[in-house]
Amino acid sequence: MTGTNETRRKVFLGLMGGAAGLAFAGGAKAGALVDDSSKVFRLDGGGSTYAFGVNAEGQLQSLYWGAALGAGDKLPAAVMVEGNSSNEVPIAVTPYEFAGFGGGLTTEPALKVRFPDGVRDLDLRYTGHQVRGEKLLVQLKDVKRAVHVALTYAMDEATGILARSAVVENRTGSWIQVDQMAAACLNLPYSDDYQLSFLSGRWAGEFMLQTRAVTPGAFFVESRKGVTSHQSNPWIALSRNTTGEESGPVWFGALGWSGSWRINVEMDAMGGLHATAGYNPFDFSYRLKPGESLASPVFYAGFSNEGFGGASRIFHRYQREKILPNAPAPRLRPVLYNSWEATFFDVDEAGQMALAEKAASIGVERFVVDDGWFGARNSDKQGLGDWVVNRKKFPNGMGPLVKHVNALGMQFGLWVEPEMVNPDSDLYRAHPDWVINFPGRQRSEARNQLVLNLARKDVCEHLLKVLDELVSSNNIEYLKWDHNRTWSEPGWPEAAPDEQQRLYVAYVDNLYRLLAELRRRHPKLEIESCASGGGRVDLGIMKLTEQVWTSDNTDPYDRLVIQDGFTQAYAPAIMMAWVTDSPNFVNKRVTSLEYRFLSAMQGGLGIGANLKHWNQDDFAKAKRLVQEYKGIRATVQLGNLYRLVSPRNGAPRSATLSVSQDRKQAVLFAFLHSSMMRSAQPMIQLRGLDPGAVYALRAISGSAAPGTPARASGAYWMGRGVKVALEGDFQAAAFVLEAQAVS
Length: 743
Ligand code: DGJ
Hints:
Helix 6 packs parallel to helix 7 and helix 8 packs parallel to helix 9. The chain contains 11 helices and 39 strands. It starts with 13 loop residues before the first strand and ends with a strand. (2R,3S,4R,5S)-2-(hydroxymethyl)piperidine-3,4,5-triol binds next to loops.
């Protein structure tokens, strides 16, 4: 259903009314019909419909979100929900689109404000709307005071992903304090079998998929850390007991915000489900002077009736076509080499040149010098913040290495961590006031570093200047932008006490501005978002960075599980994965070079091994697999991903399939954890192929079981499947299927 031409429908924005309900004219064309007595807004896109209305009190109330309704279907006008007893006020059980805290609301508010006279009651009512192209804007206002809210709804025609956000504006004559603000509240009707899925983790263990039953009460996922975080990622999915990987309903959403965030999932007293996503109210407070406004981040929500696989495929497509730099045609990820695991801080001109020559010999396209090239940076204890080339390590500056790398046919990239400073650095000695801190209090260090206060104009100007000079001074085409600690003592002493907590928003807004300006000045520069691995992966940073560092855990087996969780929410187009040394530094696991390659080839391929330790055979294997990767990477990065067999929960085997958009190529990766009890290998049934086309099967690595045909129809591969010959521990195989030209 999702993404197919047959079901793709025009975005429809209709404001329709009538006491007897609403009839949608066939064809569902973009446009608006208005009935002053009873109002319904309906948005259609991909395979879904989203509808809400204005109830008799003038409040905005959800009506429907799910599988696409028929063009002629009627939606009833919005009516406040009655509780099951008179002690339950309707406001506590009505599914609001964007509720203010006030009037007896006891579920999660979307907006909570304080007025100078101590009033904390906010009752938002509909005042108007406009349709602007793909966007629907709805205006709300407090019943008494000039607090205005503008809601934006943008439904993507192809995928049905709905981007929702809000802006609150203070038009009163004095300040107001915003204590809580969401982008949106999404509602689903009562059911006793909802499941909530979310991604949790830690350093070296990001993107672990968790699923739990939704029960009465509230549950939230969040970051209080000033950054997106490893511990929790701002994505959730709601499904039913019967939903599986490829069937059943999934409602999902992800917040595009790289600071502290919260998604609250709550079942009210009558079983209605509310998911409210926005700024984390933890330590949040944002003062708005008269005339000022505050915008929320964007909450992106989608629906699929094709299980978690269908949900992630439409979300990946949306990211490729609407979010990533260069969308709708994001550039393919080059094969990169990164020095980190090979040389750590011990980088120098001769050593990096030698690595670059070896990297070029296997087909690497981008050579990246990681941490250690600048200032007095010989360990993580000093030098951070001093973005000048270390002349002991690079006596002639970075120029000779960059030229050498370019002459070898590769792009050159550098690691930076602009938002941080070691106290033992020239920058901190000159500007101890530039870090986030509370005066006279401890400045807690993590990884021996402090966080620069990007809310400050002077800090941002300094960073823009040094980064601009760095990128301009040499042919630097890529930055790995790292962020290696979370916040502590979140003070901003230069701001007025009542305005200091603006830090949570101002820091991230300025980070986005800094990245955008740097990109504007250097249009061919590409950037990777890294935060000690996958600590800053979200749709906010993704608009400004081509790729992300998925995890510092480069063990190829652990990575299968991390990648399985990652792709629930995020596209393989951005997911970097490296082939590193064996035993792996995180867990001492020993795996073959082929296994490491096949694990990493499911995303943007990188090599992070110490090539000085490789033998001729390793180079020959790597060269062949890099060459193979270049032939399949468009399918892997930009195709449709099917997680055929999940590696979660210690599964004995796993498999993924990527199918190109035109269905002419498919790539199958299969992994065996360990052979047990001489158990038989199951057939792996493929998905997403053209059943009528004939595909030739070719092994990239490993082999299919004897008797597997060399070519067969898509129907055959999807019906009968492929049996992969795998025996032993940590074994892997990969195949490419190419559709044959019809003669
Ligand atoms: C953390 C990153 O995730 C690593 O890849 C590496 O760049 C180090 N920082 C460098 O300090």
